[in-house]
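Reopening: Biotin carboxyl carrier protein of acetyl-CoA carboxylase still failing for me.
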Amino acid sequence: MTDDLPLTHEDIAEIAAILEKSGYRELDLATRRFRLKVARGDGGDGVTQEWQWAGSAADVVAESAATEADPDAICSPLPGTFYHAPQPGAPPFVQPGDVVGPETVIGIVETMKLMNPVHAGRSGTVGAMLVPNGTLVAKGEALVRLT
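Support: Ran it again with your exact input. Result attached.
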């Protein structure tokens, strides 16, 4: 690890401790700035970790391909099930006509029982929800189109 990681060693140790107490084997945390994977070893022999800065070569290629296909689309940052609302019966995060900013949550993608918020990443007005609620999506798949 380098000193420029946006999380401290203490932050990662705390995340590892939470993982040890949970029923999960691994955690994959992705933000716009970085991605951190923490996993319990098979047989309980400690915790491993890896991280990378956002914008790795593979991510840049996938994101640019999706953007070229539909430059107004907000795409899924990872594979999983896309949900419009935080829980069943709750109002959706956004609807067509809503104005969003870069930090606005437009939905969540559930991957391995972890709920990952999807942020708009830029400002605009929601033109259409491209994926029905509860749909399995691939990384880079268009979820919402801005106008």
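The chain has two helices and eleven strands. If you still see a failure, please send the error message rather than a screenshot.
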